[in-house]
Every structure is written in structure tokens, then in C-alpha cells.
Amino acid sequence: MSLFRNDLNETLTKIEVSEIRQFDEATSSIPDILKLTLGEPDFTIPEHIQKVAKQAIDDNFSHYTGNAGIPELRQAAADFQNKKYGLHYKPENVITTVGASEAIAAALGTIINPGDGILLPAPIYSAYTPLINFYHGQEFRMNTRDNDFILTPEMIEDTIAANPKVNFKAIILNYPSNPTGVTYRPNDIEAIVKVCKQHQLWVVSDEIYSELTYGDPHTSIASYLPEQTILINGLSKSHAMTGWRIGFIFADVEMINEISKVHQYMVTAATSIVQKAAVEALTNGIDDGKKMAVEYLKRRDYVYSEMKEMGFEMARPDGAFYIFAKIPNGYLQDSMAFCKDLAQKNHLAIIPGHAFGDEGEGYVRISYAADLSKLHEAMKRLKTYMDSNK
């Protein structure tokens, strides 16, 4: 007899496996499938970082570290943010986490009380909503589609005014954005900061793509609102270290002390060997991400141009490695149906826009974290599909 019971944590009934992962796995069995689905850099981890990890193994650096990470890594992470983005962090402002995903979970677990309102510009990466639900918060999504996916202070004000009985606790930002690739300029950030100050909102700012920007350098909201910002970053995108699971939380010391409690009981500490490699990445590899960004820019320009010619409408991405495109009229407008049909008929897998909320319906996301030869083939398959389904 099965020991499985139906009286598990009832909050899990509101949580499902990410549609991104579901669709990626569902299309994997299609013969000759070409996948532009996951946010997975195709670059190899720089060799100098690998060497340090190997040395750490040889040195038997294999025991527990402090909960917040080894001191030299916390120092390196603070220095990186300060040098790159003009911030003023010290090691005591840093927690080393098991990827940015754990950082987000620990941060939200620290600030959310049951019933608290959490604001999200939408469409947005799908990981935040399940965590808000798990911690018994309420999400309030602000549709940014009509403003080229840029959040405005008015959207925040209108949402708060429409829900006067809700205790709004925080806003989650993710920029450069997954799925749209758009980012915020200093004037956009200044305007958002004013309303966050007025309503005393925590800002959980997921800036994991900060090193992958095109044109203007990244501006962190922490440079305008350090006392209310919980800044999330990591090495998955900037150094192609997705599987190594290293992220960081930066915040005021009092907030760091509280988040540390959640982090400690979630994971104890990040992997010791990878922490040594992360020091190398943030110091001698401080500009590794910018080298990758040069290649991503070429890919963005190619995919953007090709899809424009096919009739897709999209905001021009300023960062990350995604294009979020509106399905042209005359084709299946249900994004899941469109993507399934494309995968089955032309063996190209891209992500349905609905995976990023109702606000993403009618769109598709393409990850151009693939070499140009694959992108050429992908655009060929997409064009064949579009031409044959007019």
C-alpha cells in the first residue's frame, strides 16, 4: 500500500512545475528537435575558473564554509558590484547562495507575511509566483505590454490604489528582463524609486543579466535605493556557470542578518569548491561576461532581423539573450498551440508566451543562447513554418 497521503502542504495545490520546463521536456522526444527553450548559455566556463576549481579539489577544500560564504568571496562579490555598478557594499552586505533561485526564495521567505501584497511587472519570469504563493503572499501583476514592457510609477500607484485593504510589502524587478530582454534606463529607475519610497516598498531586484547588456551599461536600482533594495545576482549568466549554482544577495546589514536565517536552514552554505572558483570569476574574470555579450549582440541582431521579416512584432532587446515576439495575425494565437504545432511540424522548440503569465499570451520567447549556425537553422525552420501556414 502506498504511504503517499493527500494531506500534504495545501499550498502545493497552487504550484505547478514551470511551463518552461514542461514544454522543454515535452519536446525533447521529437526527432531532430532544435531547442531554443532554456536560458542556458552555450559558452564554456572560462578555463582559468576551471583551473581554480580543480586546484580546490586537489587541496581538499571540501568542508563546510560559513553560512554566508567564505570571506574572500563575499569581499570579491562586494568589490565586483562596487566597481561595475557604482555601489557601496562591504562583505557583511553579502550572502553567497546556491544560485540566484535560492537567493530569491530566501529573500521572499524573509519579507512576506501571510496576505502581504507583492507587485510584479508582467509578463515576467515564472519562478516568482510559486514562491509568493508558497509563502502565502498575494501577487498583483501589472501588465506592461502596452508600454513596450516597461513598468511605470503610474502602474504601481494604480494597483495600490485599487486594493486599499492590502498591505503591499514589495515589488519584484527583473532587468534586463526574462522574457522580453528589455531593461530600465536611469530615468525609468528614478521614477520607480520615488513611488517605492513613498509606499515603503522593499525592492527585490533580480539583476542576474546585468553583465549582458547592449549599448548603455547596466544601472542597478540599489544605487538609488540601497536601504530598501534586496539585490540578487550570480554567475550563471555572466560566466556561463549555470550548473555550478552560485548566486548572491546584497542588502543592508540588518536585512542580511535576517535573510541569513532562512538561507542557513535551506542550504547551510554553497558548495565549498565552487566558492573558490567564484572568487576567480569575480576577480581575474571580472570582464568575462562582456566578452560573451559581444557574441550575444550579433545573435540578437540576426534573430531580430529575421523575425521582423517574417512579420513578428517585438521590443528590441537591450540585454539578456531572449526575444519576446508577438505571433502575427493569421496564425494560431494560442501560444501553446502555436509552439506545439511548430515543434511537431518543423522540429523547432521555442517557449509559449503564456509560460510568463496571461500577459504573455499571444507571444513566444526565443532564447538566442546558441551559436549562429543553430540560429540560422532555427530561422530557416521558423520561416518554413510561417510560409506554409499563411
From TrEMBL:
Which InterPro entries does the entry link to? Aminotransferase_I/II_large (IPR004839), AspAT/PAT-like (IPR050596), NHTrfase_class1_PyrdxlP-BS (IPR004838), PyrdxlP-dep_Trfase (IPR015424), PyrdxlP-dep_Trfase_major (IPR015421), PyrdxlP-dep_Trfase_small (IPR015422)
Cofactors per UniProt? pyridoxal 5'-phosphate
One matching Pfam family, short form?
Answer: Aminotran_1_2
Q: Give the SUPFAM superfamilies listed for this entry.
A: PLP-dependent transferases (SSF53383)
Decide whether keyword Ubl conjugation is in the record: no
- Drop me one GO molecular function for this one: transaminase activity
Q: Name one GO biological process term.
A: amino acid metabolic process
Its EC number is: 2.6.1.-
Question: From what superkingdom does this record's organism come?
Answer: Bacteria
Q: Which residues form the Aminotransferase class I/classII large domain?
A: 32-382
Keyword annotations: Aminotransferase, Pyridoxal phosphate, Transferase
By its UniProt entry, which PROSITE patterns does this protein fall under?
Answer: AA_TRANSFER_CLASS_1
Which top-level enzyme class is recorded in the Swiss-Prot or TrEMBL entry? transferase
Keyword Flavoprotein annotated:
no
Question: In which family does this protein belong, per the annotation?
Answer: Belongs to the class-I pyridoxal-phosphate-dependent aminotransferase family.
Give the matching PANTHER family. AMINOTRANSFERASE (PTHR46383:SF4), ASPARTATE AMINOTRANSFERASE (PTHR46383)
Q: What is this protein called?
A: Aminotransferase
Protein source organism: Paucilactobacillus oligofermentans DSM 15707 = LMG 22743
Instruction: Recite the lineage of the species.
Output: Bacteria, Bacillati, Bacillota, Bacilli, Lactobacillales
